[in-house]
Design a protein that fits this description.
Largest sheet: 4 strands, antiparallel
Strand order of the largest sheet: 1-2-3-4
Low-confidence stretches: none
Oligomer: single chain
CATH architecture of the largest domain: 2-Layer Sandwich
Structural class: alpha+beta
Mean pLDDT: 80
Number of helices: 6
CATH class of the largest domain: Alpha Beta
Strand content: 25-35%
């Protein structure tokens, strides 16, 4: 196979100054450093500098963050290789990626994510009723009507309307026309659901 001479060619910050044979080339970096590289790595873009770009791209990664707070995490120790040991406010220790920490992608040992859904659920609970679920208009995956609380009854070949409030199901009737079933369902929401939602809103604590 004929070898292609790349002497004098530029790849990223590297300029080839000599082809050494055996798949090796000597390059001069824009920073002035001369270094021997694997020829394939340079010509295929895997190596684009002597390493200076990587060193200076994120200087904050080199600077110590010990004692600094990021969300619920306080850095206890620099472990090297882009890792730091952190103490979470909940008491857990966790080794995290330093770059992710600096970007704000990580704010806790994981406790914040676990608490989030639970706290959201608690905020919408009123007299053992999930307000978010109660007011949801999203139909089930098996729904043929596309409307929550309206389903097709195979036996009677009619549309069935119903609503479930605080564990109790209210049957609203059977209808030949789907529009009548939807109308009955909407009326039931006004009758059974809206009063509960209004009371929840009045008693809901003001978020500070």
């Amino acid at each position: 196979m004929r070898m292609i001479d790349v002497t004098g060619e530029r790849f990223g910050k590297l300029t080839v100054v000599e082809d050494l044979g055996g798949g090796k080339i000597r390059c001069r970096c824009d920073c002035g450093k001369v270094k021997v590289f694997n020829k394939w790595n340079v010509t295929h873009g895997c190596s684009t500098s002597c390493g200076c770009s990587r060193k200076h791209k994120r200087p904050e990664l080199i600077k110590s963050t010990v004692g600094q707070r990021f969300g619920r995490l306080v850095v206890k120790e620099e472990l090297g290789y882009g890792k730091v040991l952190c103490q979470c406010d909940c008491g857990n220790e966790k080794v995290v990626n330093k770059q992710h920490l600096l970007r704000g992608d990580i704010l806790s040992c994981g406790c914040l994510l676990r608490e989030g859904p639970q706290k959201a659920k608690e905020n919408y609970m009123f007299e053992r009723t999930n307000i978010a679920l109660l007011t949801s208009e999203r139909p089930t995956s098996r729904s043929k009507s596309g409307v929550r609380g309206v389903s097709w009854h195979k036996g009677k070949k009619k549309w069935r309307a119903s609503i479930c409030v605080q564990g109790k199901t209210h049957e609203l009737g059977m209808f030949v026309n789907i529009q009548d079933a939807i109308k009955a369902r909407k009326a039931a929401v006004e009758k059974y659901v809206q009063p509960i939602v209004d009371e929840w809103k009045n008693k809901k604590p003001v978020e500070k």
